């Protein structure tokens, strides 16, 4: 049975002489893998089609879906949105790559996840439609939104009585726990603002230095590793840290 769904391309792997297996996060079915046949064959037509399956691409796809199979098929596809410069701007590409990799490393369920899909889509659109300083906080806010939808989030807020963020318990506390997974000082205070941002358009309004952004990115990677089994640190996190020097 065929269905029409929006999709974000996450990863492609060559298969056979001319095909691809494409991992996508779809609005209707969550994380899915699709066979795209003949797309790597010689010829101008095939070469143009490969561009549809770059990581972070936003597609409208008509797909075959069989719930008992792990590999599905794409019948038709077209751009849902054509990026202006995500693939050419160093900062935008680093942020988009981080979002894609975080989804790839955290989503496990093959089921509808419309709210999560909207957050991913909105973040990618925002990156393309805004410039440098306006997108610097997107990785931070996106990480917090992703964690919340996956079922773990920070609680409380930074105060003089609760100045320490306990990453293992996910809450602000008065004294440092023995396990040592904490965030303190200015970065703990900044996180207290970020965790209550529900609209990604407001991310730009929080003033953060690049040093603190790097510290928070590291903190969030640790937070995910503490709460998700077998979580692997996003390689793009290190790229982002370099871009934010």
TrEMBL record:
Q: Which InterPro entries match?
A: ARFGAP/RecO, DNA_rep/recomb_RecO_N, NA-bd_OB-fold, RecO, RecO_C
**Is DNA damage set as a keyword in this record?**
yes
Instruction: Give the GO terms filed under biological process for this record.
Output: DNA recombination; double-strand break repair
Q: Name one GO cellular component term.
A: bacterial nucleoid
Keywords attached to this Swiss-Prot or TrEMBL record, sorted alphabetically, are: DNA damage, DNA recombination, DNA repair
Q: Does the keyword Cytoplasm apply?
A: no
Per the record, the domain of life is Bacteria
Indicate the segments forming the DNA replication/recombination mediator RecO N-terminal domain, all copies: 1-81
List, alphabetically, the NCBIfam families matched: reco (TIGR00613)
Q: Which family does it belong to?
A: Belongs to the RecO family.
Q: What does this protein do?
A: Involved in DNA repair and RecF pathway recombination.
According to UniProt, the name of this protein is DNA repair protein RecO
The species is Arachidicoccus ginsenosidivorans
């Amino acid at each position: 049975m065929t269905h029409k769904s929006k999709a974000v391309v996450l990863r492609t792997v060559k298969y056979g002489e001319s095909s691809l297996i494409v991992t996508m996060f779809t609005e209707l079915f969550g994380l899915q893998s699709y066979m795209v046949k003949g797309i790597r064959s010689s010829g101008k037509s095939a070469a143009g089609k490969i561009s549809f399956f770059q990581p972070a691409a936003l597609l409208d796809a008509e797909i075959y879906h069989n719930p008992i199979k792990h590999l599905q098929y794409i019948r038709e596809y077209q751009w849902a949105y054509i990026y202006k410069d995500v693939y050419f701007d160093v900062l935008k590409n680093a942020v988009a790559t981080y979002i894609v990799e975080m989804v790839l490393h955290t989503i496990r369920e093959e089921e509808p996840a419309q709210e999560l899909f909207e957050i991913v889509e909105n973040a990618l659109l925002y990156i393309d439609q805004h410039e440098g300083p306006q997108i610097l906080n997107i990785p931070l806010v996106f990480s917090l939104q992703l964690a919340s939808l996956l079922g773990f989030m920070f609680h409380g807020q930074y105060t003089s009585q609760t100045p320490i963020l306990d990453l293992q318990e996910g809450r602000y506390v008065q004294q440092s726990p023995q396990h040592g997974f904490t965030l303190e000082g200015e970065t703990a205070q900044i996180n207290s603002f970020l965790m209550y941002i529900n609209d990604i358009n407001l991310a730009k309004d929080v003033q953060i230095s690049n040093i603190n952004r790097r510290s928070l990115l590291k903190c969030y990677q640790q937070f995910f590793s503490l709460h998700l089994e077998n979580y692997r640190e996003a390689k793009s996190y290190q790229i982002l840290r370099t871009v934010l020097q």
